[in-house]
Specification:
DNA polymerase, domain 1, 69% helix
Length: 85
Amino acid sequence: MTEAPDIRLKRLRMRSWRRGTKEMDLVLGPFFDAEGASMDEATLELYEDLLNENDQDLYQWVSGQAPTPTQFEDLITYISKSVKS
């Protein structure tokens, strides 16, 4: 059974706001609130994969303290720009 789009967005929103570290809650929560509903299917899938990554790694990537894995480079750039604006 396929998950309904609205349920998926709610689930991803919750996972964005309840990461385990406050820093990533404050980065991914507002980002997803602003951009989640407008993401296409491929971006949502990639974002869901990103949410499976470790918070410490995510923070390093978003803050530019460590290189981002190739598959996430465009998405991390998108998130970083959203956070800075």
